[in-house]
C-alpha cells in the first residue's frame, strides 16, 4: 500500500502531509542555526568588500534573513529537483 508507514506518522495529525514528516526530521533548532549562519556569512562577504571596508550600497540593501524565508527557499529548491526546466531562469518565468 503506497504512502507513509503508520509507525512514522503515529504522532502526527490525521491528514499527514509531506511537510509534517519533513518537520519531524528538520527541527526548529536547525532553522535557527541556519539563519544565524546565513546572516553571519552575509555580513562577512556582502557587507564588507575585499579591502575590508564597508560597502555602503550593498549594506543599505541587505536585511537579515528570516526562518520563514529559508523554509520557502528550501522548498523551492526541493521542488526544482522534481520539475525539470532547461534553464534556471525558466523556473521563474510565467
Shape: flat
Mean pLDDT: 79
Number of discrete domains: 1
Oligomer: single chain
Which structural class should the secondary elements be placed in? mainly alpha
- Measure the end-to-end span: 37 Å
What's the helix count?
5
Largest sheet: none
Residues in helices, as a percent range: 55-70%
Question: How big a fraction of the residues is strand?
Answer: under 5%
Instruction: Report the uncertain regions.
Output: none
CA gyration radius, whole angstroms: 19 Å
Count of extended strands = 0
Describe this structure in words.
It contains 5 helices and no strands. Helix content is 57%, strand content 0%. The protein has one domain (14-92). It has 94 residues and is mainly α.
Provide a quick synopsis of the model.
By secondary structure, this protein is mainly alpha-helical. The protein is built from five helices and no strands. Helix content is 57%, strand content 0%.
Looking at this protein, list some descriptive labels.
single chain, 94 residues, mainly alpha, 57% helix, flat
Explain the layout of strands and helices.
Blueprint: H1 6-9, H2 18-25, H3 28-47, H4 56-61, H5 67-82
Amino acid at each position: 500500500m503506497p504512502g507513509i508507514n503508520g509507525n512514522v506518522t503515529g504522532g502526527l495529525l490525521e491528514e499527514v502531509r509531506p511537510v509534517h514528516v519533513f518537520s519531524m526530521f528538520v527541527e526548529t533548532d536547525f532553522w535557527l542555526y541556519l539563519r544565524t549562519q546565513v546572516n553571519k556569512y552575509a555580513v562577512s562577504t556582502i557587507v564588507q568588500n575585499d579591502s575590508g571596508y564597508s560597502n555602503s550600497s550593498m549594506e543599505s540593501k541587505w536585511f537579515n534573513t528570516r526562518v520563514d524565508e529559508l523554509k520557502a527557499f528550501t522548498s523551492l529548491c526541493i521542488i526544482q529537483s522534481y520539475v525539470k526546466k532547461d534553464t534556471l531562469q525558466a523556473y521563474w518565468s510565467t
